């Protein structure tokens, strides 16, 4: 009997998308699958968001109507998984060390809190032209009378996402509010840092990294790259430094910062 091969999954990402990096680092730290049938072979597909590839008709109508990365696609999936947290939880169902049962409730809650922050607001304060540039790119396509009705609907939906998350995230007071929330959130991690060298080196003293480790490390790296290192408690920063010195981080970042131009 010929063994069937696991279907290939494609991770659509960008090297400077914070949520893409979170998923790529989660993949790097995922550990062993719960069994052979749970293996998720992943190939990467870079999306050039700076040349607006995510606004193409194909991407908006077939990959992600929000026009964002990361997205996980596969013939094995009923539909693309177009959210970094959904991708992370999909992987955790197959790679149990990502969300170990003993800490599952707290990991889910902390991941939700981390992703409730507006990363655009934190990354681009005072740079309204960036959000307006995205809006202009969508409007340019909407102004084309030859586009299909399906594409027009997709662009209008994308515009609503931009207005809510990008333009709304840079309104007066929003970056400051997000910065305060992020600082308070990061202080809460001091209680779950590894306590002694006798335990594991990861959050909760685990010997294997969880998805929370992956997302936290990327978030702190981004805050440093955008000049917000002051919101990171020193002990949390030390933990992140140790993680960033490990081969998994080095391999996915290849010397890059999390922000383009840094």
From TrEMBL:
It comes from the Eukaryota. Residues 7-99 form the GST N-terminal domain. It comes from Fonsecaea erecta. This is GST N-terminal domain-containing protein. Belongs to the GST superfamily. Transmembrane segments: none annotated.
């Amino acid at each position: 009997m010929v063994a069937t091969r696991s279907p290939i999954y494609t991770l659509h990402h960008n090297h400077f998308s914070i949520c893409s990096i979170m998923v790529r680092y989660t993949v790097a730290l995922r550990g062993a699958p719960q069994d052979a049938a749970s293996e998720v072979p992943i190939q990467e597909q870079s999306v050039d968001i700076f040349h607006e590839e995510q606004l193409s008709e194909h991407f908006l109508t077939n990959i992600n109507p929000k026009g964002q990365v990361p997205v996980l696609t596969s013939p094995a999936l009923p539909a693309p998984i177009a959210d970094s947290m959904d991708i992370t939880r999909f992987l955790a169902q197959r790679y149990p060390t990502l969300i170990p049962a003993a800490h599952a409730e707290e990991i889910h809650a902390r991941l939700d809190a981390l992703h409730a922050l507006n990363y655009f607001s934190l990354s681009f304060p005072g740079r309204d032209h960036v959000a307006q540039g995205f809006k202009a790119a969508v409007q340019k396509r909407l102004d084309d009378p030859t586009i299909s009705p399906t594409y027009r609907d997709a662009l209008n939906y994308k515009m609503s996402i931009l207005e809510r998350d990008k333009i709304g995230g840079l309104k007066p007071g929003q970056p400051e509010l997000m910065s305060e929330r992020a600082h308070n959130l990061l202080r809460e991690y001091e209680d779950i840092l590894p306590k002694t060298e006798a335990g594991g080196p990861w959050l909760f003293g685990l010997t294997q990294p969880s998805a929370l480790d992956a997302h936290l490390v990327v978030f702190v790296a981004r805050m440093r790259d955008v000049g917000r290192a002051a919101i990171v408690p020193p002990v949390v920063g030390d933990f992140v430094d140790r993680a960033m010195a490990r081969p998994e981080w080095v391999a996915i970042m290849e010397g890059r910062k999390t922000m383009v131009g840094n």
